[in-house]
Amino acid sequence: MERVQKVISNLGYASRREAEKLILDGKVLINNQKANLGDKVKPSDIIKINGIVLDKTKSNDKVYYLLNKPRGVVSTTSDELGRKTVVSLIETDKRIYPVGRLDYDTTGAILLTNDGDLTNLLIHPSREVEKVYLAKIKGIITGSDIFKLKNGVVVDNKKTSKARVKLKSYDKKNNTSLVELVIHEGRNHQVKKMFEAIGYDVIKLTRIRFAFLDVKTLKSGEYRMLTPKEVKKLYNLGSN
Fold first, then answer.
1. What pLDDT digit, counting tens, does each position of 119-136 carry?
2. Chain centroid to CA 211: how far?
3. What is the pLDDT of residue 81?
4. Cβ–Cβ under 8 Å, residues 67 and 87
5. Which terminus has fewer CB within 10 Å in the chain: N or C?
6. CATH 3.30.70.1560 residue ranges for the chain
7. How far apart are the first and last CA of the chain?
8. Cα–Cα dist 193/227, whole Å
9. In the sheet that 52-53 helps form, which strands lie side by side, from edge to edge?
10. Strand 107-113 and strand 202-210: pairing?
11. What share of the chain is helix, strand, coil (3-state, %, to 5)?
12. For 203-227, how does the pLDDT look when each residue is reduced to its tens digit (9 = 90+)?
């Protein structure tokens, strides 16, 4: 017997976190009874989500994609406003979802999969998975402000963890700086808010690397499947 949220996740219907939300919202039934977090199910149990029976005979093959997300695309499986989603850019018959999110106007590396176990590992704070961003900001950043970013700034009443920060270039004529920022947290709009906390507006933001995966070989909107070796390496992140 397995917890119902894990079964939903393993079948690729949603990530574990999304499955838990569906349960809390009362949208999951087990044998026509409202499910609760932690409920365990047998293979013979009937699971319904939003009134539809979950097909447990569906192929459980795991798929993993690295996408170079374009600007103007949302990092969700669907969008009530009808905007293009990252999922719509991937040609697959599997029900995949993004690992974490990038803002609507942020570009770069994002993973998509139907592997709920790997998703939970990668988004768990204890794994401290590195995300590398390249931010074009308004203004010439000072050494003291770089030091502040490195040591953490207060965002939404909570100090960010230490980061690695490097000034890549600056343009005095246009009054802009290009800054590389390496973080392992994943708070909402975190990078933009970190710069805002020290008085800089982000003009353009790109995630150039997620863990050890970069998008140097992928044009905007292009994607590739991960190799078995890469998937294994992702599973081993932070396990030592």
1. 988 988 888 899 999 999
2. 12
3. 85
4. no
5. C
6. 130-210
7. 29
8. 34
9. 33-34, 28-30, 47-49, 52-53
10. parallel
11. 25, 30, 45
12. 999 999 999 999 999 999 999 999 9
Residue 190, token pair as written in the block: 């975190």
CATH of 2-53, one of 3.40.640.10, 3.20.10.10, 2.20.28.160, 3.10.290.10: 3.10.290.10
- Report which of 81, 85, 184, 70 is spatially closest to residue 127, judged by C-alpha positions: 184
> What average pLDDT is seen over the chain?
91
Domain 64-126+215-235, CATH number (from 3.30.70.3270, 3.90.1640.30, 3.40.50.450, 3.30.70.580): 3.30.70.580
What's the pTM value of the predicted model, to 2 decimals?
0.76
State how far the Cα of 180 lies from the Cα of 35, in Å rounded to an integer.
45
Are 13 and 5 spatial neighbours (Cβ–Cβ below 8 Å)? no
Quick count: other Cβ atoms within 10 Å of Cβ 204?
A: 14
Domain 130-210, classified CATH 3.40.50.300, yes or no: no
